[in-house]
Each structure stands twice: as structure tokens, then as C-alpha cells.
Amino acid sequence: MGHIYLIRHGQASLGAADYDQLSELGQRQSVRLGQYLKQRSHERGLRWDAVMMGSLRRHRQTWEGIAQGADWSHQPLVWPGLNEYDSAALLAALPPGLPTADTHTPDGFKRHFRLLRDALTQWMAGTISPQGMPSYTDFVTGVTGALAHIRHHHPTGNVLVVSSGGPIATLVGHLLRTPAETTIELNMQIRNTALTELVSGPRRQRLVSFNTLPHLDGAEHQPWVTHA
Prior knowledge:
By secondary structure, the protein is of the alpha/beta class.
């Protein structure tokens, strides 16, 4: 059996003009994860056969941090189906007249994610069609295609996958056959640089662990735990 680690990117820049950019903390989280993976791989005798990632900047920067921390030189396969949904397009597709949310304040931050939950629910049900985004069915196809690729090319190999909360939650929901509401809640819980582990065989993959942060155990790294 092989192992697949689904890795959410490091902390990005929520509230900034360009979200798709790791913060300084996000960069440190990524390097720390690489250090952990190097040690863990040595302890378990794991050799990583491949790396896959989305095409977003924060995915590439997260992988670069991991590679730096682990002293790895793998060349990732870029898989656009692992890209996150467009939260701005989702919110813009909601009915007009709803109050906007300012992510710079605690109340605004909470309202932002309440609106996002509503928009995700409607997108997944096919009620709204956000501009520039695929249908939810096509989104799922793009995400699950990554697992199909791994199953075909690395049926018993070990693969790292760097992506975002939405695709990771979608993959977990697909494996567990969860309803849309549960998939959304999984999405909202995934922390930056969290590991979700699958075991993989020639015919199927199954979930082993979800949203873990073993590299940030210990009091010195507790301030590094983030969600955005």
C-alpha cells in the first residue's frame, strides 16, 4: 500500500489585495512541515515517488518551503484541478443587497464565512453559477481526477499533494460519501499546512487521518496554528 499526504497551503494573505501569496508565517509553516516530513520519512523508511500541486502561487510557495525544509528536489506535477474555488466569485453570485463583510474585523470575518457557506451550498446545489467558475460537478471531476492519476501511475507509491481547503475537503467527502453540508464543514476546519493522510492501493484509496498538525506540536509552535 502507498501513502498520499494531502497538504493544505501555508497561511495566505486574507484581507490583502492579493490573497494568493503566503504570509511570512505561512512560509515558516511550510519550512517546518518540510523538516517534519524529512524526519518522518526517515523514521518510516518512506520514499516519495511524486509530488502534485495546484497551479496557484500559494501552492508553489508552500511546496518551495517544504522542499527547503526537507532538502528535496522533486519536480511537482502541476494539476489545475487541485486549485481552490473562487470565493470572491461565489460571494458575488449571491443575491444583491446582502451586507458586505469586512474581514479586518472579528465580526466581519465571521460574517464573511457565513456568507461563503451559503454561497458554497447554493453552488453545490446548482442554484448559482459564479462567473468564471466551473459547475460543482466539474469541480469535483477535476479534483478527483488527481486521485485517479495517482491510482493509475503510482498505485502503491507515496505521493505528496499540495492543494487548498476546498479540494481537500472535496476529496475526503468523495471518499466518505458525505453530504454537501458535511463537505463544507470539513472545508472550514482545515488548518494551514495540515496533513490529511490516505492509504492507496491499485483499486481504491481510503482515509487514515484528517487535518493533523504533527509538525506544530509543542507550546513553541502553538501561535503558528492558523486557518486562513
